[in-house]
Amino acid sequence: MRREKIQSEDYLSKILELFGWEYKSLKPDDVLAIEEFRNSLKRINDVSDEEIDEVINYLTTRSFDAEGCIQILEAIKRGVTIKDKEGNLKTIKVIDFSNLKDNSLVYARQVDYGSIIPDITLFVNGIPIAIIECKRMAKSWKEGYEQIKRYERDVPELFKYVQVGFSFADRLVYFPVVRWLESVPVYEWKPEFEILKTETLLDIIRHYTYYRERDGEIAKVLPRYMQYRAANAIADRAVKYAKGIEDRNKGLVWHWQGTGKTLTMIFAAEKIRDLLGNPTIFFIVDRVELQNQLSDEFKNLKIHAEIIGSIDHLRRVLSHADGKRGYFITLVHKFREEELTDLRKEMERQNWSIMKRKDVICLIDEGHRTQYGELAASMRSLLRNASFFAFTGTPIAKKGRDTYAVFGYPDEPYIDKYFIVDSIQDGFTVKIAYQSRLDEVHLDRENLEVFLSSKLEEIPEEYRERVEEDLKRRLNRIKVILEDEKRIERIARDIASHYIKNVKPFKAMVVGVSRKACLSYKKVLDKFLKPHETEIVMTFSQNDSKQMLDYMQEQMKKYGKNELKQVHEEIIMRFRRAENPKILIVTDMLLTGFDAPILQTMYLDKPLKEHRLLQAIARTNRPFMKEGENLKGAGLIIDYVGVFKHLKRAFEMYEEEDIRGAAYNLNEIKEELRMKIDEIFSLFEFPLSHDRETMDRAILVLDEKIDEFRKLYFEIRNLYRLLLEDRVEFKEKFDLLTELYYAYLQRNNGLDAEIEQKKDQFYREALKFIHETIDVGRIKKDYPAVVIDDEFIKKIAERRDGRKFYDLLFAVKSYTRDAADETIVERVNRIVREWNERAKDIEELYNELKDIAERINEERKEKERLGLSEKEYRIFRLLKGHLIAEIDDVKIVSLLREMMSEIEGMLFPRWYEKGEMVNEVSRKVLLFLIRNFKDKLDVQRVRDDIVRFMIIYAERHENG
Hints:
The structure is a single chain. This protein is α/β, with parallel strands linked by helices. It is built from 36 helices and 28 strands. The strands form 7 sheets. The protein has a 7-stranded parallel beta sheet. It has a 7-stranded parallel beta sheet with strand order 22-23-21-24-27-20-28, sandwiched between helices. A 6-stranded mixed beta sheet has the order 1-4-5-6-7-8, sandwiched between helices.
């Protein structure tokens, strides 16, 4: 039996049965299993055959483009609405989410969808909702992922129903099925297989799966395991409290920056709404910027949420009957006691109002900031029976400002925690490295501490500037220093040089102390970079200087927009997706909630402290994924004001294990790099060097260890690039590893050493980096692709050095990648094994290789003379080798092609896994042999040999 079947498919089948899936051999009609679908709909609905026909017609006539896929997901979640005989609307459930056991929950193996046969399909009521591809443990999950992406192109009709794809090999990964996207994010669940439980997977599809349109692209959202865990905890508590089952009505979700808190809030709200019917859910934020981001996410997901634009608007929502129902986004600053006192008193006199209701839920973003003062007290007084759940990446534990005390309980400080270490280990965020590059003008500590005050956070934005005026005298000296144009010019020159040499092709952010400083940075950076490579994102006001207002008008004209918000949206979209701008210049905007994986470096020229510092630097911690690989080794913070001298203060409120790994200085990055280099060198039992014989020996080792080597090499490469100008200690070893890796690609894969880089959207910069490290041209020259012919064999024989064994070995090994002659493959593998084990003398092994090469050469000539492919030639040799009567080669070739034309049209990917198809191929071959070669060979024996060869050939070329 094939290893992947035993190691993965059989293993996973047992788990599926434990998790509530029943095995059946379903045969879909097209892609729906119609009989199973009909029986299930009758069981979970009061429905007639004619009504089921209408539902089937609705589903099958949906297109497999984005619109059709959105409609199918909605049908799976909500059912299909039809008209009954009386003309009344009737909704028919296609899945009963309330009584899971009433559904048909089936897993089927090797289902034939025409041109594809996935390993496992999960059917719910005859609907294929998930596909699983299994590979053996030695393979990477990427193979199954890429196979499902191919399936999407081959049978698009199937994938309007399939919501989730799984690949199981070295590990189990899951990903959203989106047929029109070339690549999608890939996740791992924890515990690993729990996502396959019937109740979990159906809960994910019902409450946590959405299509999202952003920047003109439609993608599908699936939850990460910590989002699912937190949202379920909130929904469970809010629903039980609203129904009077439990008394607890609050909770803190402590998730590190970059782990998707906004989506977690929306997931929780959607589940609460489904379970409670029609509650009132407030999303409370403390900045206009966060309000807009949250509103945009709702719009992207096509979920309606009402923004409360004024205190009068809030008053209308609260006083409407017993409170308006739905989703409402509001700034906490709208809850001003002096503006709402009369409303509060009036509601206290009423028998029933929103104040009395328990099905009111407040989901508070950045709960560490504004939930301790009068605004929060006013909100809680008006919504005194509501439940409150706060989300924070950086909780505070200080007298008067204790996030745990406000939202937790003594025995439960938080209902879900997912912090820095968890996030980095799971790959949802990357490490943050920092480097101090202090300017020659320093800030004195006393003034810095004054400036770091965060008391302005509760003050509404429209009043903030007036309050700042009162503080101007104390802050004046610091601003004079940080806004000084000569100083900014020195730093801008350093930023431009650093960016060009060390950050490209990633992007960066400059954080200035003020809006004036931002404008100065833009002006100076334009001297060193092209003007379109940098852009400012900041607010403007009517009282700004002419220079400020002129720049705002210039931006609006440049982007063809009438509103500043639209300008910012356009700049951010281009930063995320287009080549320019490469650097954003900000002071307050985008320091929280901004998500751009391509952002790798932050140039910090603004004093920040505590949670604001952590939030700001976390903008750089998103991994940048391409084809399943993270290309960003770490986020990098360049500190120009000495903030990181005080980093420990930002961590004083957390336990040591909570903050370990929040930010690394470059010395810690170096230590990690040393460890990884030691680990990769330990893969070899001999010292590595640049000499040819050692490189050849190492390439043979990589035949067995390439996946482990490649993973470590990419990690080392990312860390090495991060070291910027401080690479001397590692340069020699990194150069050696790079040369070995690209020599392996050239020699063992027969590929141009640059091919791999062409998969990278950063091709030019990545390739430039490789060229700086090694001489790619020399690798091509030293390890050329060769053809085993008379001239090659003659040149090898004439050599008198130790190179001839390796040159011949790699040439023959290159041939065996595509060769279908198993005897040659086995002989070559044995020679490699005996050489590694030093079981035979090199001269003896060379002579064996030479015999193989001469045989390959003779066969190549014969194959070319007859005009046959490798597959045809192997069957030709089988036929000729068994003949007991003389038949001309031309006649054999003619008959062979006739047979292949009959058979090839029947075959499809992985046909050999389907017993009836193997039998049909076997029958066709036997009939052909009887018809054309009866009495000239043993037809049954040759039939068996040909079919066995065709299976081996297909497995070899489809599975690698």
